[in-house]
Design brief:
single chain, transmembrane helix, repeat, 5-stranded antiparallel beta sheet, disordered N terminus
């Protein structure tokens, strides 16, 4: 009992903790020692270096670089201070580097300095390491992240580019551990950096093409392709909560050193990959973090940076324009102290707040827009409207109103209605004489008063409809001022939004309605909150109506106050970058539909000018805006038909596009490579996601072994103790010397530069499709719809064909050629060796002919169903059909009857062998001549048809003169005639060799006349010419008109057409048609969506010497095309062509011409004075 009592009352051991502030000794029970110490002094008092939050903000992890430890904290609803959960010390981690990811189920991932599998995962509840089984234990992990659905995603670049997706198992009870199962492996292409979002998107950056490719790892579909300016490398990537905006902080790295230069902020729309805005920081500013905050209630981009003196700056931007940055220091001053480090997620701050690890949920103030305008003096426009739902409810309520009693009617409303916002005030004056006067005022902060806006501050917004609608009463049903101070208005003729544009005044910003312009016929049902108003951007206006009624006037007709709001609206949209990005494709389709050619050109010019800087002495392209040109590319087929002049001008201005910011020749000129120095060869690799197959794993294993073998041999060269190695000997004494020799003698010859193909999405197919419909009636790409000679005069399209051919074209073409060769071989052997082979062998050959023939006929049937009219009217399609049909029918008849007519065998063999020759048309040396033959044949076809009619007419006349008078006279060699008529008349056409009258039928007469055309007159006897003067006249006429005149004319025309035919261009067009057939009729629907085969943006290399020769041809006005390519100063500088001297020579020529004209005028004036 005593011992028991003494043991129970024995004091517990304590430890001493010295406070840095009060220097006291604090006694803490040892059972609480570790936990209390971690809470009071996390990471053993070492500074926190990094904070990472879980995807659903359940947990947060902190990391200390000094202590090399990680602590997991839980985020408790309603509590500001985070709750300590557990800690992993440095002793439990193998070569720790940094904290990488935190999950919602209490797992953390720590990146290590290990060479293979350079990360460790810990389950923080019991500090256990879950097992993750990789197919290859030597993977190097570049990036890892947990997603909102609980998966763990890792990206590896060695030994192969691959992504691994692990899914946690649900524990059976509270004591069971979570296991991670490898559920998917994705095959990737080359990338230099990667980013993973919590929503399961994988963003890969390629430093060869400077593009960020956003992939959905669940659907394996491309979300968006965001090109950035060359030499800029992304450092930070941030997405909005709905992942519709992508923010990028990139740094400009020069080639001379690895020190970063200026920083640039990009904001992209993930809907189409178009660059909304950019902002440049000085090289003295380093950007630390970027965050999207205040989603849906006035979204802003927060940029945190520091200068060379470590002074921190916080700027607030409108993410859609990145203009007029606002100092956001006051945003961090709200009664709490926020210290580094901290992170902002879902507009909440997590970090050191008031000295402890806490969450600050009130970071975004109540009445956020008022706070922006009043406290931060942020007067930038708000593009995302918080009151979208209120707009929908207003429309819905207006639809349910049965009477107009509660609406504003001009017949009984004679008062002003005021709608006051934060920066703008709207006044609506409904007057008696059918007039709606809208006034706008802006708030002057200096004078604290409302002043009329600059530009048109008062406008009459009453529409002047036609006489039928004009007599109906027009109503303004309801108005509301929006958060961004625009005026939302529901009327009987549609939904309108009014805004104020600086220096222009009141403008119509948005319209939705129908052509009747009368509320009782309006149907707003397609505006549903779930699929339109729920999005950050309003649904597109009714552009068809706006364009159709662009001449509709508003206000008193004939007065100076009359306005054309619809016309102004469409003009504002086609010149505003924001509107073009979100509505440009829809606007372009409406303009094409309405045949608004002038506006089409204006929209095209706007897209062009956002990319190319006019009157620039440096480079004239901004590659980050290149996706805007896809709006022009989408109507290439229509431009070819309706406006080929503008298309030719566009191709001319984009013939040579260098995608560099720095135009130094040393930067763009590249050392040649033995295997990749081809002219017009693709540059870089293009990403495509696919499931990893066994073949991929096998190839990666071989590649890994090869790399290790090379590494061992490399070490062997520097180790004198090693034995002799054949590989080292070959590399040292053969490969390296040959490479040096090749570089030395070919450097000047094959120096290449990179060019950009400025036709984004030109070869791409739509992502959404129906598989069964695509199998028989595939949707063509713009490339297929735009096969025209003008495009292939430029290197851009030739490089495009080379890319397509090298990527997939030759593989498919050789396979098709192989199948056809099997068909040809089987039938030819059966026809030629039918008597020398067994019956079974003959049957097998004929059956193989039938099978391969049916496969080719199915392809021809697909061509027919794709476009029946074009197929029937195309002579070459009919020829292809007959080539396959003849041997198939011949094989069927031969198998059924045991024999077949010899003429069928001969005809089938001839057609098959001629078709085989045409397969060489894609091989350039032979294909050029085949293309020349086919192109010239098409052009002279009409002439040949006319000549055929002439020959037929003469043949019919000869038949009437020389046909036999009795049936027996046309029986061939047994021909004999008695009597005066038989002998004297029919002997005129008897062939001297076989006594056969060849003019017995019209077909024989045509053949005989054709033989006369080539000089064979044996079909007509000399006696016939002696005794029949008309026959003599007919023969002489035929000889003169056809042989002397038509044949010589034919030869002259043929020679002229050969000289006029651009055989290289014809070859490229034929090659393009071959590729088009492969894409449409041989590829499966999913293969047409492979982004490494059909990338949105393509770069290619050209030889400088060949480019220099072409530039000289262009400068000397010897360009063979509609409009010669534009030569920018940048391209001339790179290839070292004296642009200034050339310009001076041209200027001298112009001045000489002007002097000559002046002399001529003076001479004429002197002559008049003398007279």
């Amino acid at each position: 009992m005593e011992s028991s009592t003494s043991s129970s009352t024995k004091p517990k051991p304590t430890f001493q903790l010295q406070s840095q502030d009060e220097h006291k000794i604090v006694h803490v029970p040892s059972s609480r020692h570790s936990r209390r110490l971690s809470i009071e002094r996390p990471h053993n008092g070492k500074p926190i270096s990094k904070i990472i939050c879980s995807p659903k903000m359940k947990y947060a992890g902190t990391w200390s670089n000094d202590d090399k430890s990680v602590i997991l904290w839980s985020i408790v609803t309603g509590q500001q201070r985070l709750k300590y959960e557990n800690e992993i010390s440095r002793t439990s981690i193998t070569e720790p580097n940094t904290l990488s990811a935190v999950s919602d189920n209490m797992h953390v991932v720590i990146k290590t300095n290990s060479y293979h599998l350079n990360f460790e995962m810990f389950e923080m509840m019991n500090k256990q390491k879950p097992s993750l089984r990789f197919p290859n234990s030597r993977n190097v992990i570049d990036r890892s992240e947990f997603t909102r659905n609980g998966d763990f995603v890792t990206v590896s670049s060695f030994p192969s580019y691959r992504a691994f997706i692990f899914t946690p198992t649900t524990p059976s009870d509270s004591t069971s551990e979570i296991e991670w199962i490898l559920t998917s492996m994705l095959e990737l292409s080359y990338f230099s950096d990667s980013f993973i979002t919590i929503y399961g998107n994988l963003i890969l950056f390629n430093d060869k093409t400077f593009q960020l490719i956003n992939w959905n790892i669940e659907t394996l579909k491309l979300q968006t392709n965001c090109p950035i300016d060359w030499s800029y490398v992304p450092d930070l990537v941030e997405v909005t909560e709905d992942e519709e905006l992508l923010g990028i902080c990139a740094k400009n790295y020069t080639e001379q050193d690895d020190e970063p230069g200026t920083s640039r902020i990009y904001v992209y729309s993930t809907m189409n990959g178009m660059n909304l805005a950019t902002y440049d920081y000085d090289s003295s500013i380093s950007i630390d973090k970027i965050y999207f905050i205040a989603h849906e209630i006035g979204e802003r981009l927060l940029v945190i940076s520091h200068n060379t003196e470590n002074e921190i700056t916080r700027d607030l931007f409108d993410p859609y324009t990145l203009e007029n940055p606002v100092n956001a220091e006051n945003l961090f001053e709200n009664g709490v102290t926020i210290q580094n480090p901290y992170i902002i997620k879902f507009s909440q701050v997590i970090g050191l707040i008031d000295g402890s690890i806490s969450i600050y949920r009130e970071f975004i103030r109540n009445n956020w827009v008022d706070y922006l305008r009043g406290q931060l003096n942020d007067y930038n426009k708000l593009f995302t409207l918080y009151d979208r739902k209120a707009m929908y409810e207003m429309i819905k309520k207006a639809m349910n109103i049965e009477s107009y009693g509660s609406r504003y009617n001009i017949d009984h409303l004679e008062q002003e209605e005021t709608y006051k916002g934060r920066l703008l005030k709207w006044v609506l004056d409904c007057q008696f004489l059918k007039s709606f006067i809208l006034k706008a005022f802006h708030f002057n902060h200096e004078g604290n008063e409302w002043l009329p806006v600059q530009g048109k501050s008062q406008r009459n917004i009453f529409p002047n409809f036609n006489s039928e609608i004009q007599n109906r009463p027009q109503y303004i049903i309801q108005c509301k001022i929006l958060d961004n101070d625009d005026l939302f208005m529901i009327t009987t003729f549609g939904v309108l939004i009014w805004t104020v544009i600086p220096d222009k005044g009141i403008r119509l910003l948005y319209y939705w309605g129908n052509e009747d312009f009368y509320y009782q016929e309006l149907t707003y049902t397609k505006l549903s909150y779930s699929d339109t108003f729920a999005k950050r951007i309003l649904p597109p206006p009714e552009f068809d109506i706006v364009i159709k009624f662009k001449e509709l006037s508003f206000g008193p007709e004939g007065s100076k106050d009359v306005s054309y709001f619809f016309k102004e609206l469409i003009e504002d949209y086609i010149t505003n970058k924001f509107s073009i990005i979100y509505y440009g494709s829809i606007i372009m389709n409406s303009l094409v539909k309405m045949n608004a050619d002038l506006m089409i050109e204006k929209l095209c010019e706007s897209c062009f000018e956002f990319n190319f800087k006019p009157n620039s002495d440096i480079n004239n392209i901004s590659t980050s805006n290149i996706q805007l040109l896809s709006i022009i590319v989408q109507i290439f087929p229509e431009l070819l038909q309706k406006d080929p002049n503008y298309l030719a001008g566009f191709l001319s201005r984009t013939a040579f596009v260098i995608p560099f910011i720095d135009q130094s020749p040393l930067r763009v000129r590249e050392k040649p490579s033995i295997f990749h120095s081809s002219h017009l060869y693709q540059h870089g690799t293009y990403n495509y996601l696919s499931k990893t197959s066994i073949i991929n794993i096998f190839i990666s294993r071989i590649y890994e072994r090869w790399k290790h073998f090379q590494y061992d041999q490399y070490k062997h060269r520097f180790d004198n103790n090693k034995n002799f190695s054949i590989y080292s000997f070959i590399e040292t004494y053969i490969i390296i010397p040959f490479q040096n020799w090749y570089d030395y003698y070919n450097f000047d010859k094959n120096i290449t530069i990179k060019l950009l193909l400025p036709l984004p999405k030109f070869i791409s197919y739509p992502e959404s499709y129906n598989t069964w419909s695509e199998l028989w009636n595939p949707l063509p790409s713009n490339f297929i719809r735009s096969i025209d000679g003008e495009l292939y005069k430029y290197w851009n399209c030739e490089a495009l064909l080379n890319f397509k051919w090298n990527t997939y074209g030759r593989k498919y073409y050789l396979t098709i050629w192989l199948f056809y060769t099997i068909l040809l071989g089987c039938f030819t052997m059966a026809a030629t060796k039918s008597n020398a082979i067994s019956l079974n062998s003959l049957t097998s050959l004929l059956q193989a002919t039938f099978i391969f023939g049916i496969w080719h006929l199915m392809i021809e049937f697909k061509k027919f169903t794709y476009s029946p009219l074009n197929y029937i009217t195309d002579f070459w399609n009919l020829c292809d059909f007959c080539v396959i049909l003849f041997p198939v029918i011949t094989s069927i008849l031969w198998l059924q009857n045991g024999s077949v007519s010899t003429w069928l065998l001969a005809a089938s063999s001839l057609l098959l062998e001629l078709k085989f020759i045409l397969f060489f048309r894609t091989i350039e040396p032979i294909g050029i001549y085949i293309a020349l033959i086919i192109s010239v044949a098409k052009r002279i076809l009409v002439f040949l048809i006319i000549m055929g009619f002439i020959i037929t007419a003469f043949a019919h006349s000869f038949l009437l003169l020389l046909r036999p008078t009795s049936d027996i006279s046309s029986e061939g060699p047994s021909y004999s005639a008695t009597g005066m008529n038989g002998v004297e008349e029919n002997d005129q056409s008897v062939n001297a060799d076989n006594n056969y009258n060849i003019f017995s039928t019209l077909g024989d007469a045509i053949f005989a006349t054709y033989m006369m055309l080539i000089g064979n007159f044996t079909s007509i006897s000399q006696s016939a010419l002696r005794y029949n003067p008309f026959l003599t006249f007919l023969v002489v006429s035929f000889s003169f008109f056809t042989i002397l005149y038509l044949l010589n004319l034919f030869i002259g025309i043929l020679s002229k057409m050969i000289n006029e035919t651009n055989y290289e261009e014809s070859f490229l067009i034929h090659k393009a048609k071959v590729l088009a057939e492969i894409e449409l009729f041989y590829m499966l629907p999913h293969q047409r969506r492979k982004k490494n085969w059909f990338p949105e943006i393509i770069f290619y290399t050209v030889h400088v010497n060949k480019l220099r020769n072409l530039v000289r041809i262009i400068q000397n006005d010897k360009w063979n095309g509609f409009e010669k390519p534009y030569l920018s100063p940048a391209i001339l500088k790179v290839i070292k062509v004296e642009y200034d001297n050339f310009s001076k020579n041209k200027q001298v020529e112009i001045e000489i011409g002007e002097i000559k004209e002046l002399i001529m005028r003076l001479r004429d004036d002197v002559g008049e004075i003398d007279e």
